[in-house]
């Protein structure tokens, strides 16, 4: 065996490390990586193998140091190889993931849409808006003044019964607050802060501990309308409701008033609408009671007004041909996607 000096052996190891490091750094795909592996660490003809063969030509005294340097160089290049392998694998995975065949036909993405009750609310706001009624909101947690007293519903009135309302364990003054049971509260809130002439519509949730059935739900929506102007009469009320009903339901709709009673309107009526050969009760209405106008500081000799309150679920059910309003809240996509 040819004699080998320690210096030349260490030089070869240095060169080997530098070349292997450069080649592995540059390897950007699996083929380049494999070529570098064979060249530097290949078991039969790799450069490390060739250097190892020279160990036999070193003097006995130099062998321990040479062996240590050899093992170090081997470990370093093996570590570089593993790192390069991981890097190439990650890049290749990225390329595979990006390889989308853009010529394939698309698959439909299921799209949601606005809930039929919200669609109804927006439609009502739009129709009433065209008749000059501005949309306003009121709070769902109310005090007893706005839900009852200001609407002339006295302390002894059965509508205030705890069994008919969701009273809260939170009070304002001596009276517990409650979840509003009607949107007529908004009439008062608006009249307290504005002067006539007024044309407003308010749509929102109301709450009553009613047992759910085909026409009742403990949480439902009402549309409240209020007009206060000089010379307002029941004829205006009927015209507005008929115009609204024919715009909302389409076609010719008849409106019928039946005598009724609400403490805050005088006279009071139940509103029925006939459409497609059937009469259906939609809500209550009437001329704003002069006592209510006075309570908010208006002069009933100067202005008069009408108000109405309709059940949104009921008018939506009528329009969409839904037999049971509970279906609106079952969250069954097969039902909801029909609208
Ligand atoms: C009222 O709530 C009055 N505030 C209406 C009113 C407004 C009268 C302005 C005069 C002037 P009533 O309790 O009848 O009235 O309810 C009105 C409508 O709400 C009913 O006709 C019905 O369509 C709907 N409604 C009542 N309870 C329920 C319920 N549990 N689930 C679904 N809809 C309901």
Note down, in words, how this protein is organized.
The chain is of the alpha+beta class and 339 residues long. The chain has 2 domains: 94 residues, no CATH class; 221 residues, BirA Bifunctional Protein, domain 2, CATH 3.30.930. The chain is 42% helix and 22% strand. It is built from 11 helices and 10 strands. The strands form 2 sheets. A 7-stranded mixed sheet has the order 1-5-6-10-9-8-7, with helices on both faces. A 3-stranded antiparallel sheet has the order 2-4-3. Strand 3 and strand 4 form a beta hairpin. Helix 1 packs antiparallel against helix 2, helix 2 packs antiparallel against helix 4 and helix 5 crosses helix 10. The radius of gyration is 42 Å and the shape is rod-shaped. The N and C termini lie far apart (92 Å). The structure holds adenosine-5'-[phenylalaninyl-phosphate]. The site of adenosine-5'-[phenylalaninyl-phosphate] has 23 residues, from strand 6, strand 9, strand 10 and helix 10.
The hetero compounds bound to this protein are:
adenosine-5'-[phenylalaninyl-phosphate]
Strand order of the largest sheet: 1-5-6-10-9-8-7
Radius of gyration: 42 Å
Assembly classification: single chain
Global morphology: rod-shaped
Instruction: State the end-to-end distance.
Output: 92 Å
Helices and strands, in N-to-C order? HHHHHEEHEEHEEHEEEHEHH
List the helices and strands and how they pair.
Elements: H1 6-26, H2 30-41, H3 47-54, H4 63-98, H5 116-130, E1 134-135, E2 141-142, H6 144-147, E3 166-172, E4 175-179, H7 184-193, E5 198-207, E6 219-229, H8 234-249, E7 254-262, E8 265-275, E9 278-288, H9 290-295, E10 304-311, H10 312-320, H11 333-336
Parallel strand pairs: 1-5
Antiparallel strand pairs: 2-4, 3-4, 5-6, 6-10, 7-8, 8-9, 9-10
Bound molecules: adenosine-5'-[phenylalaninyl-phosphate].
Adenosine-5'-[phenylalaninyl-phosphate] binds at residues 182, 184, 208, 210, 216-217, 220, 222, 262, 265, 281-286, 307-311, 313-314.
